[in-house]
Write a structure and sequence with these properties.
GO terms for molecular function: receptor serine/threonine kinase binding. It is found in: Membrane. The protein is an alpha/beta fold. Helices cover 11% and strands 24% of the residues. It has six helices and 68 strands.
């Protein structure tokens, strides 16, 4: 019994041993390594779900086994949705000939251990997220025929060792971030058929040695930074079919040797710096189907002839400097030409009739040249034409009615010409037409009703013509219409209600016309509408409430119309970015629901009759850039309305009835460029925090009730252009810090209570141009001569202050000045001669100013010497009157005495006889003694008593009184 148990024990050991050996053998198989590779992949789609030890390896998804099914020779997991990194365990699959992990989400680097796969013939890792350098060891895969590792995030240079892959036929390194140059030894790849290097950052020249790749059929190196001339050696690549060197910086001329590429079907050299003429030898490329030489510096005439390039389907020569016109023998009747793009050159002449022979043409672009004349009536020969692009030329005349015969036409771009006349009604035959752009012409007449028969129309743009009359009533037939642009014409009448049935409409521009009436209620059907502009028309009436259903509106501009009532119906869209209702008759409060449009950037409601306060919900408009609520009847204070709107640049609230103090939170609006709070009832101080708004260009606080001083922090506004504090109650000094506002060109501080002197620092504001207005304040002292540095200043007003002293001669240098007012001050001295052209009113009511246009300074000086104060003048007048009175009384007294003396003499003569009379006559002369010691002193107009001088000898006769007449009378 024990022996039986012993036998069983050894049998079990044998079985376990066999199992162990088998397990060891299994670990060495490909399945072991593949399971380890699987463990490192992330497989959300379950592409590797059947990779299991329980199933045969050759049935696993993506695997290809050898004929004897002993080895895995192929692994293809392309597009399996796997992610993770490429495991180094791949190096153990030494029988692999094909490894394709392309179009997944693999990351990490390409492991250098793959070099151990010496049987590998195809390695495809493209379209992943692989990074790092291309391992230099990859050049040791001697049997490799296909290497496609592009469309990754690989960096660094192309390793020169790639040139060791002598069996390589396909090298795909495009769409990475590779730099450096194309390896010179690339020419060693004699079997190379396809070389894809496009969309990298490769630089340097294309090596001449590339001619060694004599089997090359596809060479694509577009969108790099390759430079230098195109090597003529490319002409040796006889098998070349595709040559794409677009969007580099290649220079020089196009090599004539390219004409040797007899198998070439695709040649793309666009976006380089090639110059000179197109070699006429290229006409020998009989197999060429697509030729693109656009966006270079090529010049001269067009030597290419379609009758030689018989396979040519696409010719693109746009964006060069070609001159002349299209050669007369360009086309032939059997032409295969389908696309001809000659835009943005210097071609001229009339519409090239030669093109009418190319009946195969589908797309014709002659835009942005200098073509002129009328369109040929035989244009309908181009029966296959789908796109006619003739914009920005000098074509004239009317559109030929025959254009309606080109039934294949889909796009018609004729804008930017000089077309006149009407749209031909025949255009209604173009049932495939989806785009018609006629803007910027001189067309007129009605928009034909027949246009609405083009039911495939998606875009219509007639901007900037002279179309008149109504919008066709049948416009609603254009069910697919997306864009309708009729702005800046002479259209009139109402909007047809049928327009509401253009349910695909996204952009509607009817601005700058003479349209009238109200908005049709059918507009509520335009659920796709994103932009509507109706400004500068005569629309009126209230808005239909149904507009609230337009939830996709982003831009609304109804400004300059006659709309009335509430604009609440326009606040239904939370997508609004711009709302402009300026200059209408909207009334009532601002709807708070407007604040639901969190992306609103521009809000303009000026010149309406809006009332109430600004909704506090506006604090949610964090994207707001422009706010204009001016010229309404808004009340209340600002509260913390826009304190969160950090992107706001313009706040215009002028001409309302807003109250309260100017809030300090304005100082937190770092992007603020314009603040206008003028013509309101704000009181309190100008907040110093405004000095934090370093981008502020315009600050208008005029016509309020602000008080206190101008804050010193105003000098922090170094970008300020306009500062207006006019008509407030501001007091104190003008801060000298204002000199730091070097970009000021308008400064108005008038009609306040500013005191002190005018800061000399104002003379440093060299950009001050529009005005410096300090009038109607309490400023004193002299005018600083530094103001003469304001050479750009056009208006200066210092009137109605208490300024003293002379007008600084330096002000005479202000040659740009055309308005000056220094009146109503205490200025004196001479007005600078350069001010002679200003009116007298500029200088009136000063104390002692003189010079043109006032009185001359010489007269002023003479008058000044005699000029007395009012008190002195009164005293002098009183003295003159008193003196005159005294003199009159004295004269009266003297005359009275003379008369009395005369009477006495007469009486005496009557008593004493004639002898005595003669004797009396002698006393008058000075050779006799005076009578009773008295003399007549004619100098004093009176009698002066004199002492008796018995022995005096009179020598002068003071009064030669002739008494002879008297004596005769008494005879």
């Amino acid at each position: 019994m024990s022996s039986i148990w012993m036998c069983r024990f050894f049998l079990l050991l044998a079985i376990l041993d066999t199992s162990f050996v088998a397990t060891l053998s299994s670990n060495a198989t490909d399945s072991y390594w593949l399971l380890r590779i699987k463990s490192e992949f992330i497989d959300p789609l379950g592409a590797l779900s059947n990779w299991s030890p329980t199933t045969h390896i050759c049935s696993w998804h993506g695997l290809t086994c050898s004929v004897d099914q002993k080895h895995v020779i192929g692994l293809n997991l392309s597009g399996s949705g796997i992610s993770g990194s490429i495991s180094v365990e791949f190096s153990h699959l030494i029988s692999l000939q094909t490894l394709d992990l392309s179009s997944n989400s693999l990351n990490g680097s390409i492991p250098s251990e793959l070099v151990q796969l010496q049987n590998l013939r195809i390695l495809q890792l493209y379209s992943n997220y692989l990074s790092g350098n291309i391992p230099a060891e990859i050049g040791n895969l001697k049997k490799l025929q296909v290497l496609r590792i592009g469309d990754n995030m690989l960096t660094g240079e192309i390793p020169p060792s790639v040139a060791n892959l002598s069996h390589l036929t396909v090298l795909g390194l495009g769409y990475c971030n590779l730099n450096g140059s194309i390896p010179i030894d690339i020419g060693k790849l004699k079997n190379l058929i396809s070389l894809d290097l496009q969309v990298n950052s490769l630089s340097g020249p294309i090596p001449e040695e590339i001619q060694g790749c004599n089997e090359l059929q596809n060479f694509a190196a577009s969108n790099n930074m390759l430079q230098g001339d195109m090597p003529s050696s490319i002409g040796s690549l006889k098998s070349l079919e595709i040559l794409n060197l677009a969007n580099n910086t290649l220079s020089g001329s196009i090599p004539k040797a390219l004409s040797h590429l007899s198998n070439l079907t695709y040649l793309n050299l666009l976006g380089n710096k090639l110059s000179g003429k197109i070699p006429s030898e290229l006409n020998s490329l009989a197999q060429l189907q697509k030729l693109d030489l656009s966006k270079n510096n090529l010049s001269g005439s067009m030597p290419l002839l379609n009758n030689k390039l018989q396979s040519l389907e696409t010719l693109v020569l746009s964006d060069n400097s070609f001159t002349g016109s299209i050669p007369s023998n360009f086309c032939f009747r059997g032409s295969k030409l389908q696309q001809l793009f000659l835009a943005r050159n210097k071609l001229s002449g009339k519409f090239p009739l030669e093109l009418l022979n190319c009946s195969s043409i589908q797309q014709l672009d002659l835009s942005d040249n200098s073509f002129e004349g009328e369109l040929p009536s035989s244009l309908d020969k181009l029966q296959n034409l789908t796109d006619l692009v003739l914009n920005n030329n000098s074509f004239i005349g009317t559109l030929p009615p025959q254009i309606g015969n080109i039934s294949s036409l889909e796009s018609l771009f004729l804008f930017g010409n000089f077309f006149t006349g009407k749209i031909p009604v025949e255009i209604g035959r173009l049932h495939r037409l989806n785009t018609i752009y006629l803007y910027d012409n001189q067309m007129s007449g009605l928009i034909p009703r027949e246009l609405t028969n083009c039911t495939s129309l998606r875009e219509v743009d007639f901007f900037g013509n002279q179309f008149s009359g109504p919008i066709p009533e049948t416009i609603g037939k254009l069910k697919d219409l997306v864009v309708l642009h009729l702005r800046q014409n002479d259209l009139s009448g109402p909007i047809p209600p049928s327009m509401g049935y253009c349910k695909s409409l996204q952009i509607l521009a009817l601005a700058d016309n003479r349209l009238s009436g109200s908005i049709p209620s059918t507009f509520s059907y335009l659920s796709q509408l994103t932009k509507i502009t109706l400004y500068n028309n005569s629309f009126e009436g209230p808005l239909p409430h149904s507009l609230t259903s337009l939830k996709n509106l982003k831009i609304i501009n109804f400004s300059h119309n006659k709309f009335s009532g509430s604009f609440f119906p326009l606040t239904g869209s939370n997508s609004l970015t711009l709302l402009d209702l300026t200059n209408n008759s909207f009334s009532g409060p601002i709807p708070s629901t407007l604040a639901n449009s969190r992306n609103l950037t521009r809000l303009r409601l000026a010149y309406n009759y809006l009332t109430g306060s600004i909704p506090s919900e506006f604090g949610n408009l964090t994207e707001l850039n422009f706010l204009d609520l001016s010229f309404n009847n808004l009340t209340g204070d600002l509260l913390p309305l826009l304190s969160k709107s950090q992107k706001v640049e313009h706040i215009l609230l002028s001409n309302n009835r807003l109250t309260g103090q100017i809030p300090s939170w304005f100082g937190r609006l770092k992007e603020l460029g314009e603040l206008d709070l003028s013509f309101n009832n704000f009181h309190g101080k100008v907040p110093a925090e405004l000095g934090n708004c370093s981008n502020l260009l315009k600050l208008s606080l005029h016509h309020n009730n602000l008080s206190g001083e101008i804050p010193q922090e105003i000098g922090n506004l170094t970008s300020l252009n306009v500062f207006n504090l006019q008509r407030n109650n501001i007091s104190g000094l003008i801060p000298s810090t204002i000199q730091q506002c070097k970009k000021l060109y308008e400064l108005r501080l008038s009609e306040n209570f500013l005191t002190g002197t005018i800061p000399a620092e104002l003379g440093g504001l060299a950009e001050l141009q529009v005005i410096l207005d300090l009038s109607k304040n309490l400023l004193s002292g002299e005018i600083p001569s530094s103001l003469g540095n304001l050479m750009k200043l056009e208006r200066l007003n210092l009137s109605f202050n208490q300024l003293q002293g002379k007008v600084p001669p330096s002000l005479g240098k202000l040659t740009s000045l055309h308005m000056l007012n220094l009146s109503n001050n205490h200025l004196e001295g001479q007005v600078p001669s350069t001010f002679s052209g200003f009116p007298r009113s500029s200088f009136l009511k000063n104390d002692h100013l003189c010079g043109t246009p006032l009185v001359s300074c010489s007269k002023s000086t003479a008058q000044g010497k005699m000029q007395l104060s009012n008190t002195q003048v009164v005293a002098i007048i009183v003295a003159i009157v008193f003196t005159s009175t005294v003199i009159c009384l004295v004269m009266l007294y003297i005359m009275l005495r003379i008369w009395c003396n005369w009477r006495k003499v007469s009486i005496s003569n009557g008593d004493g006889g004639v002898g005595q009379k003669k004797e009396e006559g002698r006393w008058v002369c000075s050779d006799h003694k005076t009578r009773k010691g008295e003399y007549w002193n004619m100098n004093s107009f009176g009698m002066i008593p004199s002492p008796d001088k018995q022995n005096s000898e009179p020598t002068t006769c003071f009064f030669n009184l002739k008494m002879e007449g008297m004596e005769n009378t008494n005879i």
